[in-house]
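Repro:
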Amino acid sequence: MAFQKLKVKIIHKTRLLAVNGEQLLVIEKVGETKKLTFPGGVKKRKESFEESLKRETLEEIGLMVNKHKLSHVISSARILHATTVLKHHFALTIDTNVFKVLEPEKFKDVYWTHWKDAIAFLDKEDKKAVKKFFKSKLKKKRKLYRDESSIPPRIAM
């Protein structure tokens, strides 16, 4: 019995969660239905994920990214036929309005929006990354009420 070698193709994609407080920098895709995405794209063979993200962000919206300030949020995999697509999300805190659509054949607009307003228009992997990033960020920032102790009730008694 002869076995055929199954050639599996792996594609790495990067995405940037550019964050300013609770605002996300989103790109609106061209099309009838509203769909949002983040700057990023396919990683070239000899690039690091951070270099890929820097290049793609500059090409798509003209935004310069400091690759040393990127923090990894999550990576996810999706298998389509004999292709595995790995999407790597990175976050960067920025405070700028110096960006514009440089690929009008793909994108309508680029703008800041509250992360909760963007969720409904993102793909599955992007939604997961945004929720993970902001849920962990909000847990860390939870403020105590005036009469609340930082000691858990079961220990304080």
